[in-house]
Each structure stands twice: as C-alpha cells, then as structure tokens.
Design a protein that fits this description.
130 residues
C-alpha cells in the first residue's frame, strides 16, 4: 500500500488524515490545567500566585490592584477565552495555558498560567495583548 498523498494534495493532506496527529492537535486546543483549579489556586495564593514581572505589569502598566487582577482571572472561561497551550521555556516538560480576556473595546489581556509542583507562581504573564 502506498503512503503517497493523493496527487496535488501534498504532505499536509497526509498529515491531516493521520488519526494520531488529529488527536494531538485536538488535545493541544484544550488547556493543560483545569481552569477551576487554576482559579482556586489564584484565590488561595493571592499576590503570591503572580510572578514579579506580572505584578509589575499589573501595577505599572495596567494600573490595577492585585485584587482586581484576581477578579479578572475569575472571569476566565475555557470556551470564551482559552487561546492555546504551549511548552514552558524555563521548565522542561511543563506546559502553560494562554487566555485572551477582553476587558473593554480596545484592550485584551494576555494571561498565561501554569501549575508546577513546588512553585507558588500560577500566573506567569498578565499583560496587554499586543
């Protein structure tokens, strides 16, 4: 049996029909961490759930209080705000979930979260989406 894709369709057609790759692609469109667990950890850890750079952005660029940032995270939903899962750059084998949260007509927040054993930071990035 030939593994060549149908004439004129190229390698992308072959890859698109591979059930293993389709399952992986679907999985990557789901968050790694249950959002309700992330929200609970943020509520429990309060300001300690944010990285230092997130705290600086919240205060200096977004002009928000930490309590307001925590409230905004509680508004996240997978269906409306989940964007993607990505591999963490600094922690091999860890993943981060990215959410886009519109807060007004001209501003959308980029919120990146992760849950890693032994680390208090849950919110890795909290900034305006470029």
């Amino acid at each position: 049996m030939s593994t060549k894709p149908p004439r004129g369709r190229g390698a992308s057609a072959l890859l698109a029909s591979d059930p293993t790759l389709l399952a992986l692609k679907k999985k990557l469109k789901q968050p790694t961490y249950p959002l309700d667990v992330v929200k609970a950890e943020v509520l429990a850890r309060k300001e300690h759930c944010f990285t230092m750079s997130s705290l600086e952005t919240i205060a200096d660029e977004l002009l928000l209080q930490v309590s307001e940032a925590i409230e905004l995270i509680q508004l996240l939903s997978v269906d409306d705000h989940f964007y993607k899962t990505m591999e963490a750059e600094k922690i091999p084998g860890a993943f981060q979930d990215v959410y886009h949260l519109p807060i007004d007509d001209s501003t959308t927040l980029y919120i990146k979260v992760q849950l890693v054993e032994g680390r208090s930071e849950v919110v890795i990035s909290f900034k305006r989406k470029d």
